[in-house]
Write a structure and sequence with these properties.
By secondary structure, this protein is of the alpha+beta class. Helix content is about 35%, strand content about 20%. The two termini are about 45 Å apart.
Length: about 400
C-alpha cells in the first residue's frame, strides 16, 4: 500500500509515519509505516486515540504497562473512608492528590492539620503559615513530622468513551490492511473515523461465554478478523487488556477474499502469543447482536475487571517484595562481603518492610451511566457519595 488510507496521499520520506495498530498507550507494539501519513496520524490521535488512552489509562497505570515513550498517566480517585482525593502512580503507589490544610478554631485556640506529599511540600506550607502565625517553629515541626502510609481503599472510575470506539475501529482497520486487506472495503468507515457520520455496527461485547479464555496471570491485547464472502460480511473483535472488548462489523456487503486473521500480544510478558479464539458468527446472529446492544451484560465486564485487578495485585506485591529484599540484602552484603547468611535482625527488618507495603485495594460498585462532574472537588464528592451507595464492606476484590 503506497498511499494513506484516509487522504490517499502518496507516501514520501517527509510525510510517512509509523502508526501503531493498537495505540502504544494501550500496550500496542505492532506498527506499520504504510497506513497513515503524518497529518492523518496526528489528526486521528487528537480526535480519538487520546480518548481510548484516557479510557484504558487506569489499567495501563495499575499494570504499569511498558510503552515506546513515557509512562501511563497518574489516576485520580478518592479514599473511601476519609473522602480525600487520591492519586495513583504507575505500579500502584498512591497518596493524596494535593496537600490538605485544615484550620479548626475553638475560642481563642486555633489548631492546624497539615497533610503533605513530601517533606519539601510540608516545609513550604509551614513557611507560608508562619506569615500568619509567627509563633510557628518551622524547624521544630519538621523534626516532629509524622510520616504515614495510606492504607485506605481507593474508589476510582472505569469508563467507556464514545469517541474511544473510533480508535477501536481504526485498530481493526489497521490490522486488516497490514494483513493484505483492500482499502475500498473499509472506505465507508473513514467518515465515521472523521466524526462526520455515526456507525451502528460497533459496540462493546461481553457475552456470557468468553470469546477468549486467557491463561492464568495473562493480560493481552487481542484482535480477530473474519472475512466471509458467502455471508457477505467482514467483522472484527478486539480486546484491550482482555477488559475493554468490542465487536465491529467492518463491512456488511463484503465480497472480498475469505479471511481468518488473529493477532495477540501479552502486554506483561511483552511478546506475541498465538491463542485459539472462539469467534464464529453467522450474518443474522451478528446483526441481532448490534440490534440488541443495550442488552450487553455489564456484569460480565465487572467479572473480567476483577480478574485483571487480581493479576495486577499479585504482580505489584511480588515486585514490592522483590525490591525490598534486593535493597536490604544488597546493602548488607556491600557492608559485609564475607557474610554467609543473613542475621536474624535483618530478616526481621525485611519482614517489617514487607508489612508496610502500600496496599492498593479496589472495591467495585454497580455501574452508573451518570458522568462525574468535571470540577475536581465536585468529582471527589460525587465519588464519595457513590461509594456509600455502591461499595460493599466485604474486603478487596
Amino acid at each position: 500500500m503506497e498511499t494513506c488510507y484516509r487522504c490517499d496521499i502518496g507516501f514520501t520520506d517527509e510525510n510517512r509515519s509509523k502508526e501503531h495498530v493498537i495505540p502504544n498507550s494501550c500496550g500496542g507494539w505492532l506498527k506499520s509505516s504504510e497506513l497513515l501519513c503524518k497529518k492523518c496520524n496526528s489528526l486521528f490521535g487528537e480526535k480519538f486515540d487520546k480518548d481510548l488512552a484516557e479510557q484504558t489509562n487506569f489499567l495501563a497505570n495499575f499494570l504499569n504497562i511498558k510503552r515506546n515513550t513515557g509512562k501511563p498517566q497518574n489516576v485520580e480517585g478518592v479514599y473511601l473512608h476519609s473522602g480525600e482525593p487520591a492519586t495513583i502512580s504507575p505500579g500502584g503507589r498512591h497518596g493524596i492528590l494535593r496537600p490538605i490544610v485544615k484550620q479548626i478554631d475553638k475560642g481563642n485556640h486555633t489548631s492546624i492539620s497539615i497533610k503533605a506529599r513530601n517533606s519539601k511540600e510540608y516545609k513550604k506550607i509551614l513557611i507560608s503559615l508562619k506569615r500568619k502565625y509567627p509563633k510557628i517553629d518551622v524547624e521544630e515541626m519538621m523534626t516532629n513530622v509524622k510520616r504515614e502510609t495510606q492504607t485506605e481503599p481507593i474508589a476510582t472510575l472505569a469508563k467507556f468513551s464514545v469517541d474511544a470506539k473510533r480508535s477501536i475501529v481504526k485498530s481493526l482497520i489497521n490490522f486488516y490492511l497490514i494483513s493484505g486487506g483492500v482499502k475500498k472495503i473499509i472506505a465507508h468507515l473513514i467518515p465515521y473515523l472523521e466524526g462526520v457520520q455515526e456507525y451502528r455496527y460497533a459496540y462493546v461485547h461481553y457475552p456470557d461465554n468468553l470469546i477468549y479464555e486467557v491463561k492464568k496471570g495473562e493480560v493481552s491485547n487481542v484482535i480477530r478478523i473474519i472475512g466471509n464472502p458467502s455471508e457477505r460480511m467482514l467483522y472484527g473483535y478486539i480486546e484491550i487488556f482482555n477488559t475493554y472488548n468490542y465487536l465491529v462489523m467492518l463491512n456488511n456487503e463484503y465480497d472480498g477474499a475469505k479471511m481468518n486473521l488473529t493477532y495477540a500480544y501479552d502486554v506483561l510478558l511483552n511478546k506475541q502469543i498465538f491463542p485459539d479464539i472462539n469467534l464464529n458468527y453467522d450474518r443474522q446472529s451478528l446483526i441481532n447482536l448490534f440490534d440488541k446492544k443495550n442488552e450487553t451484560p455489564l456484569a460480565n465486564f465487572q467479572k473480567i475487571l476483577e480478574r485483571i485487578i487480581e493479576v495486577g495485585m499479585i504482580r505489584q506485591l511480588d515486585k514490592n517484595i522483590q525490591d525490598i529484599i534486593i535493597a536490604v540484602v544488597g546493602d548488607y552484603i556491600s557492608l559485609n562481603p564475607k557474610a554467609e547468611k543473613l542475621p536474624k535482625v535483618l530478616e526481621l527488618l525485611i519482614n517489617k518492610k514487607i508489612s508496610e507495603i502500600q496496599p492498593y485495594i479496589i472495591k467495585f460498585g454497580n455501574p452508573t451511566p451518570e458522568a462525574p462532574p468535571r470540577n475536581i472537588d465536585e468529582r471527589n464528592k460525587w465519588l464519595q457519595e457513590r461509594t456509600k451507595e455502591c461499595f460493599t464492606d466485604k474486603g478487596s476484590h
